[in-house]
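Hi F.,

I've been meaning to write this up properly since the lab meeting, where we talked about keeping a consistent format for the predictions we share between groups. The idea is simple: the sequence comes first, exactly as it goes in, then the C-alpha cells exactly as they come out, then a line or two of notes. No screenshots and no reformatting. I'm using this chain as the first example so we have something concrete to point to.
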Amino acid sequence: MSGRTRTRACPERTCVGCRERAAKNELLRIVAIEGACVPDPRGTLPGRGAYVHPVPVCLDQAVRRKAFPRALRVPGPLDVKALRQYVEQAQGC
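Output, unedited:
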C-alpha cells in the first residue's frame, strides 16, 4: 500500500428543523406512514426519509415550517404525536 490511512467519510444530512448540517448518526430519521410521521432510529424503514435533531426545539421548528410534508413529499399535514412522544422520551422529559 501507499502508507496512507484510509478514513471513511462520515455521511452528513440536514436537519429539517434548524437547517444545520450534522453527521447522520446525530440525527433522527423520520418516515411518513399512513399520514403520520414515524421515528426510524435504526434507519431501516422503507420510503423517503427526512432528518431532524432529536430535540423538541428542532421538532417544533420543523412542524411550524411545515417541513415534514415538503421533505417527505406527501400531500397535506402529517400527524407528529408519535414523533413528539419519541423525542420527549429520548430527552428524558
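Notes:
The longest helix spans residues 81-91.
The two ends are 51 Å apart (CA to CA).

If this format works for you, I'll send the rest the same way.

G.
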